[in-house]
Specification:
The protein has one domain: Alpha-Beta Plaits (2-Layer Sandwich). Helix content is 28%, strand content 30%. It is built from four helices and seven strands. The longest helix is centred in the C-terminal third of the chain and has 19 residues. It starts with 23 loop residues before the first strand and ends with a strand.
């Protein structure tokens, strides 16, 4: 039976001890879907939306990378990690939804799922912030881990 990894024997919050773990190559890929609505999506037909704050997608990519690097400052029991790579890509799918993919890589004793999830989520929040002047009818639909490698077990979402 699985146990919560961030609780000590008395049920109190505890950072996982990774001291005895082996360093391995670890990757994680997370995805967030944002629904902007027709009014905003129509603006995207000619490319990235240019707002008073700057280009929406380019700004969101930078925000996602910056957030992934700061994950341990945001989530209390995450280990501070020095990422080897973080890549954020933003596309529009056939349903006219904005798809934000964040992939984080590291050689470490602990995984980078939270960094990838944080990067994708903050990129989505940045898209919202950049587009709210057009409309507040924006939905951050979902954020999910798509895959991870390294550590005890690999994971790949089948969608």
């Amino acid at each position: 039976m699985s146990e919560f990894s961030h609780l000590d024997k008395d049920g109190n919050p505890s950072m996982v001890d990774v001291g005895a773990k082996q360093v391995s190559q670890r990757t994680a890929h997370a995805r967030t879907i944002v629904i902007l609505g027709d009014e905003i999506m129509d603006q995207l037909e000619s490319g990235d939306i240019q707002t008073k704050k700057g280009p929406v997608f380019q700004t969101a990519i930078l925000a996602g990378i910056m957030a992934a690097k700061k994950t341990s400052d945001l989530i209390p029991l995450c280990h501070p990690l020095s990422l080897d790579k973080c890549h954020v890509e933003i596309t529009v799918n056939e349903a006219r939804e904005v798809v934000i993919d964040c992939t984080a890589k590291i050689s470490s004793k602990t995984g980078v799922e939270m960094e990838a999830l944080t990067g994708a989520t903050i990129a989505a929040l940045t898209v919202y912030d950049m587009c709210k002047a057009f409309s507040h009818d924006i939905v951050i639909k979902e954020t999910k881990l798509m895959s991870k490698t390294g550590g005890k077990r690999d994971f790949k979402r089948v969608d």
